[in-house]
Amino acid sequence: LFRVAIWGESHGEAVGATIDGCPAGLPLAVEDFVADLARRWPDLPGVSPRREPDRPRLLSGVCAGCTTGAPLTIAFENATARPVDYEQLQNLPRPGHADLPARRKFGGWNDPRGGGHFSGRLTVGLTAAGVVAKKLLAPIAIHARVVEIGGTALAADADPSTLSSLLSEAAQAGDSLGGVVECRAGGLPVGLGEPFFDSVESIVSHLVFAIPGVKAIEFGAGFSGARLRGSQFNDPIVAADGPPATNHAGGVNGGLTNGADLVFRVAVRPTASIALPQQTIDLRTGAPAELRTTGRHDGCIAVRVPVILEAACATALADLMLIEQRLPRIAERR
Length: 334
Ligand SMILES: Cc1cc2nc3c(=O)[nH]c(=O)nc-3n(C[C@H](O)[C@H](O)[C@H](O)COP(=O)(O)O)c2cc1C
Description:
Blueprint: E1 3-8, E2 14-20, H1 34-39, E3 57-60, E4 62-63, E5 66-67, E6 72-77, H2 99-105, H3 123-137, E7 141-149, E8 152-153, H4 160-172, E9 179-186, H5 200-208, E10 214-219, H6 230-233, E11 252-253, E12 256-257, E13 262-268, E14 278-281, E15 288-291, H7 305-323
Antiparallel strand pairs: 1-2, 2-6, 3-6, 4-5, 7-8, 7-9, 9-13, 10-13, 11-12, 14-15
Flavin mononucleotide (FMN) is lined by residues 48, 97-98, 115, 118-120, 123, 211-213, 269, 271-273, 297-298, 301, 304-305, 308.
């Protein structure tokens, strides 16, 4: 019911999102987006030097400061586009990126500049949709954080210099790092989700894999749960109307929320575009070629993902809450 379309290209005019099915009467202003949009640009070593102002323009679906119930379009100008940086990629597709599959899928009509429609730039629209979803969901609280970078675990209270030095070292080596990001949503009603195909895990995963670079997801104990016995994994029931005592299931049983926090982790791959030489082919000749990617890139996508992951989670939960009729179609009555 809460349908999000993401549109634009990394080095085109603009990027953004259109939400169809957003309840009417939700107060919405440009200022609502500021904090989350800033979190998509963390001040850390190796984060792309492309700093877009990311000022949202509410092009449709808002009147007198509130959503109207009609499609809501949020647009962001690409103010610092530099397509010239990517001319070599026309003929030298980046290993690990979408350049070659996109070219083949769209017969060469795709926009190749900086990954075009496949760029991480497009996640500004998803982040904006998440702002709207979070406002609808309040007081349900969603929070994500980086829990591992390049194989090093990062506790919630870890010294920030640990992360900075990992990122700096990889950037100096001309290489990139992957990471794991954990997301938690608290205050959910019991029973969100539908059995089988539209389970909470299914809907959340569907949204989460819209984030470029996400390669895996696990809920609760996840893969480590496969190494536990039932006596260890099962979450003891301690009340008929409250959450279980532990949360190995990640807040979901039978595809339905069970009253515990929804907890999941995603694996984010190391960035494809690196300065080190990589093997590709020259599409003009078919001959092997070496590629050193230039342009403005992130050394570690994972450090930018928390707020985007929250947005994907919020979008999924807004949909599930509308389906369950826990959210009214008119958010505030006049
Ligand atoms: C916030 C964000 C920033 C990204 N920045 C870059 C980047 O600078 N360079 C790059 O090669 N990929 C970057 N990516 C990832 C690519 O868009 C992604 O790897 C590519 O589309 C291929 O998709 P896949 O990795 O999911 O297979 C970024 C992703 C996100 C979410």
